[in-house]
């Protein structure tokens, strides 16, 4: 994940340690014929908004949504977040995490397990 963090944010990471308070994470994953894109907006308690747009190999929209949340959580943890509020726009991801929707594919089960493990860091 550090390769995705620009130099300025890496410097912030090295000097800030942990930042108390609630961090807010907004994520979106999308896919089209050219590939997939993960959009991450992270708002720490300091108010300085961090925006990331990451292009990755072509995935389904659902897999891209999971990848966006996981990448956003990893970024938040790397930058010192201790408490996070995730504003995921994917109804599927939210309901699978909250066990309201069944996970039917093994591949999606692995994404859910990875996401839950990431959430337990906070």
Features:
122 residues, alpha+beta, Nucleotidyltransferase, domain 5, four-stranded mixed beta sheet, 31% strand, globular, nucleic acid binding, RNaseH_domain
List unreliable stretches of 5+ residues: 1-16
Order of helices and strands: HEEEHEHH
- CATH T-level fold name: Nucleotidyltransferase, domain 5
Coarse morphology = globular
Give the rounded overall mean pLDDT.
86
What does the largest sheet look like? 4 strands, mixed
Structural class: alpha+beta
Helix content: 40-55%
Tally of individual helices? 4
Provide the spatial order of strands within the biggest beta sheet. 3-2-1-4
InterPro entries: RNaseH-like_sf (IPR012337), RNaseH_domain (IPR002156), RNaseH_sf (IPR036397)
GO molecular function, one term: nucleic acid binding
Pfam family, one: RVT_3
Protein name: RNase H type-1 domain-containing protein
Structure description:
Residues 19-122 form the RNase H type-1 domain. The structure is a single chain. The chain is of the alpha+beta class and 122 residues long. The chain has a single domain, classed as Ribonuclease H-like superfamily/Ribonuclease H (Nucleotidyltransferase, domain 5), CATH 3.30.420. Helix content is 40%, strand content 31%. It contains 4 helices and 4 strands, in the order H-E-E-E-H-E-H-H. It has helices at residues 7-16, 61-78, 91-97, 106-119; strands spanning 19-32, 35-43, 50-56, 81-88. The longest helix is centred in the middle third of the chain and has 18 residues, at 61-78.
């Amino acid at each position: 994940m550090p390769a995705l963090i620009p130099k300025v944010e890496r410097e912030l990471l090295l000097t800030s340690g942990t930042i108390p308070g609630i961090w807010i994470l907004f994520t979106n994953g999308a896919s089209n014929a050219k590939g997939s894109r993960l959009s991450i907006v992270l708002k720490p308690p300091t108010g300085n908004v961090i925006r990331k747009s990451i292009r990755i190999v072509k995935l389904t929209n659902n897999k891209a949504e999971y990848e966006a949340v996981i990448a956003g959580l990893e970024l938040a943890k790397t930058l010192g977040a201790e408490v996070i509020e995730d504003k995921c726009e994917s109804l599927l991801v939210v309901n699978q995490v909250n066990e309201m929707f069944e996970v039917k594919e093994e591949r999606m089960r692995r994404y859910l397990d990875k996401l839950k493990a990431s959430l337990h860091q906070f």
